[in-house]
Each structure stands twice: as C-alpha cells, then as structure tokens.
C-alpha cells in the first residue's frame, strides 16, 4: 500500500486497525508527526491566563421573564400501533443520585457544611457512609446542572481550607484534561505514546470477565467494581486503582474492554476525562521516569484501613475482622474454621499472584520507557501540551 501525499491522517484512515504503526511505516510518518505535533498550537498560548480571566467574571443569572411561554397544545401525528401503546410506569432507582440544577445546588451547600466542619481523618478513608470521601460533583458537571465557573465562584465564598483547595485543583485538572482531549481525540482509541503499542498484545477474556464482575479475589478491586455497577459512581482513587489493576497486574489493554466497560457504568462519564485517565493509569504515556506498579493489598490497607468500604460491598467478607478483609487468602485453616469462612468457596481465590505480576509489569514498562522511541515520543507529547499551562 502506497502512502498518500496529503498527510499521515489520510494514510491512517485508509488503513484498517490503524491503532498500531508498523516499523516499516515509521520512515514515512516520522517527519510528518514531528511537523504536525511537536510545534505548539498558536491558539493555546496564554490559554491559562485567559481561562482565569473568564472564570473571574460574574456568572450568568437567567431572566425568566424573557422566557417564551409554552404553547397550549402541540401537533400530533399518527403513530404505529406498537409505539402508541402506553409505556409501563417509570419506577426511579432509590439508589440513584438526584439530578437537576436544584438538587445540584442543594448538594453543593450540603458539601460546604461538611467541608467547613471536616476533620482530616474523615477525608482519607473510603467510608461509604461518609460523603467527604469525594465531592460527587462530576455527575452534575457531566449533565450540565452546574458549570465549572459556578462551582469556583461558590468556593471563593467559603472559608479557606485545604479541602476546598484540593477540590479547586481537581476541577482545574479536569478542565485541562478536556482541553488535551480536544487537541488530540486519538486518546480515545490509541495510546498517546505509540511506543507502548507493542505490549499487552494477548487478551485474556477470563481475566476481563472476572474484573468486570468483581470476582478477581482482591477485595478492594471487587468492591469497587460492584459499587460502580450498582451506583454508577466511583471515587477518584478507586477509578485509578481498578484501571491500574486491569492494565498493570492483569496485563490487559485498556482499549479492549476495560475503558469501554467503565464508560458504560459511570453516570458521570466524560470522554475528555475518562480516556486520558485510563492512559495515565495504564502508564502508556511515557511521562514517568521510573515506573512503580501499585500493590493492590497495600492500596486496600491505605485507602480502606477499617475495611468499611470492602465489607459494605462484599457481604461475604462481613464475618471477618477488618484486618483480614484486605487479603483473606492469607488466613490459616484455623482462622477460616474460627470465622466459619472457606476461601475459594465463600470468596474466590486470587486469579493472579500479584507479587509476580508486579515485578513483571515494572520490568516491562521500564524497558519501554527507557527506549529511544518512547523518549522521543515523550518529548513530543510534552512539547505539544506545554502551551496549555503557559
């Protein structure tokens, strides 16, 4: 196949399965990629300052007196018999969050009361009964019930503390990710750093099914996957933990089922935030000098020391004391008899040996990161997105 002369984008569109660039094609694509992606975009220069000036402006107050009145009746049309039948009554999900602008403002004021009276320890644990573990504003932003500028204006009216500062930083990071996604929409289907295309080639459907259903044998990961399936929401740290476990320990490609599954489950799905975060947790951006693969057991003990989140979403582990819920496979036979619990029957055994997968993933990712191709791509990525914060 001869590459067309009108640029590499048309060339890649003409190829099926264009997510991977063959080594024989790089001699043609390299000069074009350098010219196209290495230079800073002119409309991003000084963007950060323009953003700050815009957000300092007063928010828009709607004038309902100018609203157009609704008509008394609407024209009707003849519908097919199967469509004209009355629909079954709608039964709302009692666990679903209340959406709408009124509910959003009510939650924001409730959050202000909690943040202004918060203690540091309450913000560091994944207690399902404590709303302070996450702000839960992403769904309202995704559905347009609140704007980013409205929330930032509201934060400026609150007493200064580190909780509001952390929330402001996350909101700004969210906006930056969306801007990056607008600049390079290929993040949805391709690795940002194409040097990582040659890893995670084999797809284990058994591992993927266990991850989706929350039966991997790792309590924090299983609790998180069952939580998102039931509520459509996950705290930020658990989103990172589940995707890191999928890509680093199970060694599965984030593009082949993992990212799409979470996108279907999350009520607050935002493509500009979701896909860049998936790539960051898969460690396929090349922006980290020394790769360190997360330890799922250590994460569980750090994020959920009392096992409140784990025991809430995994009822089969409620008979165990909190210190045994993070790694139940370490229980002795005597302890299993004492608590009336049988590993492998009441709760599945781990599907992997995480110590071995941690060593393998660390070695493999560091090997790719140190390659000349990955370093060149990392320099190109940094040059392309540097103008966002300039």
Please outline what is shown here.
The protein is mainly alpha-helical. It has helices at 8-13, 26-37, 47-56, 81-84, 101-116, 138-142, 148-156, 162-183, 205-213, 219-231, 236-249, 254-265, 271-282, 296-303, 308-313, 322-325, 333-338, 354-369, 372-385. The chain folds into 2 domains: 101-183, no CATH class; 186-390, Orthogonal Bundle (DNA Cyclobutane Dipyrimidine Photolyase, subunit A, domain 3).
How would you explain this protein's 3D organization?
The protein is mostly helical. Helix content is 51%, strand content 0%. The chain has 19 helices and no strands. The model is unreliable at 1-42 and 120-127 (pLDDT under 50).
Major beta-sheet overview: none
Q: What is the β-strand count?
A: 0
**How large is the radius of gyration?**
24 Å
> Are there runs of 5+ residues with pLDDT below 50, and where?
1-42, 120-127
Classify the beta-strand content into a percent band: under 5%
**Basic shape:** globular
The total number of structural domains is 2
Distance between the termini: 41 Å
Q: Which architecture of the largest domain would the CATH scheme give at its second level?
A: Orthogonal Bundle
Query: Average pLDDT, to the nearest integer?
Result: 78
Summarize the helix and strand pattern as letters.
Answer: HHHHHHHHHHHHHHHHHHH
CATH class of the largest domain: Mainly Alpha
Annotated CATH topology of the largest domain = DNA Cyclobutane Dipyrimidine Photolyase, subunit A, domain 3
Q: Structural class given helices, strands, pairing?
A: mainly alpha
Total DSSP helices: 19
């Amino acid at each position: 196949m001869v590459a067309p002369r009108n640029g590499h984008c048309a060339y890649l569109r003409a190829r099926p399965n264009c997510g991977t660039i063959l080594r024989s094609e790089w001699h043609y694509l390299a000069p074009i990629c350098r010219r196209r992606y290495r230079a800073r975009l002119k409309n991003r220069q000084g963007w950060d300052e323009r953003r700050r000036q815009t957000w300092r402006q007063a928010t828009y107050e709607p004038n309902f007196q100018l609203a157009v009145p609704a008509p008394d009746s609407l024209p009707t049309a003849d519908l097919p018999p199967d469509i004209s039948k009355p629909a079954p009554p709608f039964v709302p999900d009692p666990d679903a969050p209340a959406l709408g602008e009124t509910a959003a403002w009510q939650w924001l004021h409730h959050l202000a009361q909690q943040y202004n009276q918060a203690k540091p320890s309450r913000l560091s644990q994944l207690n399902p009964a404590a709303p302070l573990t996450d702000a839960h504003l992403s769904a309202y932003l995704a559905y347009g019930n609140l704007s980013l500028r409205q929330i930032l204006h509201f934060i400026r009216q609150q007493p200064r503390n580190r909780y509001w500062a952390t929330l402001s930083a996350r909101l700004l990071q969210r906006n930056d990710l969306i801007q990056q996604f607008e600049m390079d929409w290929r993040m949805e289907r391709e690795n940002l750093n194409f040097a990582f295309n040659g890893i995670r080639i084999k797809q284990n459907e058994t591992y993927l099914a266990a991850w989706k259903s929350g039966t991997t044998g790792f309590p924090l990961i299983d609790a998180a996957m069952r939580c998102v399936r039931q509520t459509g929401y996950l705290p930020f740290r658990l989103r990172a933990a589940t995707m890191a476990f999928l890509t680093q320990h199970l060694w599965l490609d984030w593009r082949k089922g993992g990212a799409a599954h979470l996108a279907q489950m999350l009520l607050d799905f935002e493509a500009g935030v979701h896909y860049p975060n998936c790539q960051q947790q898969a460690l396929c951006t090349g922006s980290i000098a020394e790769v360190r693969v997360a330890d799922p057991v250590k994460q569980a003990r750090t994020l959920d020391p009392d096992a409140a989140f784990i025991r809430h979403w995994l009822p089969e582990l409620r008979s165990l004391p909190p210190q045994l819920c993070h790694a139940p496979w370490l229980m002795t036979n005597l302890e299993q008899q004492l608590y009336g619990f049988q590993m492998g029957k009441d709760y599945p055994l781990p599907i992997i040996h995480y110590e071995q997968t941690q060593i393998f993933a660390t070695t493999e990712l560091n090997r790719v990161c140190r390659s000349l191709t990955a370093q060149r791509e990392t320099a190109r990525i940094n040059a392309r997105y540097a103008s966002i914060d300039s």
